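Q&A FORM
Asked by: J.P.
Topic: structure of Solute-binding protein family 3/N-terminal domain-containing protein

PROVIDED:
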Amino acid sequence: MRAGKTLPIGLFFVMFCLVAGMVPVKAQNVTIALNSWCPHVCVPQVDSNRLGYTTEIIEKSLVDAGYSINYVKAPWATIVKMARDGKVDIVGSAYKQELPTMLFVEMPSGMAVERVFSLKSNPWSFKGVSSLSQISKIGTIEGADYNNPELMDYLKKAENVAVFSGHEIVKQHLTQLMRQRIEAFIGDEFVTLWNAKKLSSTLEVKSSPPVSGLAPLYVAVSPSHPEHKKLLKIINDGITASMKTGEFAKVLGTYNLTPWWE
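REPLIED BY: S.T.
REPLY: Here is the structure written out as tokens.
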């Protein structure tokens, strides 16, 4: 550089930032899969502009850490395939056995209670897996696991199983139940009650005792994401911190749910 010449201010600032390590780094993008399984995970377009309590906690944790989030809406069976193929980074709420190729956040992000639902007017009641053979059709969700090996074995072999796929499957179950095209379906208690309240104020359903007990749900992270270890820690820390501060309980309250850890 010749004497008497000075660097333009803009160039000087860029060089200073490079030396000081202050050049802004582009936010890493993550893709989160959404299926309509409200209140755990919701699709805003069909679930009153809600993301679900799990997704809200995940979103805050990742945004605070500087991540950019892309949401993709898909049926559950498609999400399972996307997870297997490494085409989605995060699945917000799942049983571990449903996504065997994914890594899981240590802290549970929710709880589910699977039950058998039928119309109150139906004299039939669920009394164990063998009693399912007494009804014409039992509705299930494609790609779902119900945390009960005996039940899962029956569903794989029985001829009276109606497997539902696509979007808003619990709403489909309830609609087909009202039309008496199925006699019962298996579903999470919280999701079923959420959808029944939205669908009809006169719909009367009865539920069985839990088919698998209170079961933890977990956030799943794809091992193919270059920062999967960091993502696991950020989300786990976010869940843990929000439980301690009361933020998680506050979010649950907006979905008319209470904390399971208290």
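FOLLOW-UP: The chain is about 35% helix and 20% strand.
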